[in-house]
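Before relying on records like the one below, remember that each one covers exactly one chain. Contacts with other chains, cofactors or solvent are not represented anywhere in the record.
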Amino acid sequence: MDKPFRALADPTRRRILELLRDGDLAAGDIAAQFPIAFASVSHHLQILKEADLVLARRDGQFIRYSLNTTVFQDVVQHLLDIAPARRRKGG
């Protein structure tokens, strides 16, 4: 569970996830939304992929990215599982 949380800690990666919320995008389309080098965006995409937050598939000469909603459900469930324990501890 550490990799998804580490990946989510970066604002650029969170913005990439927001872009993918509306549907699959090619790496170039994602990179066009940022004032940083394509290589930097590619690095962020690789981290998201290693954390299983995004899925990548080849589409001809392009790589298209999409959200991996299964992992997001796991992350949310993890947060819900620890939330009651924190409430009991604090009060």
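Residues 5 and 29 are 25 Å apart (CA to CA).
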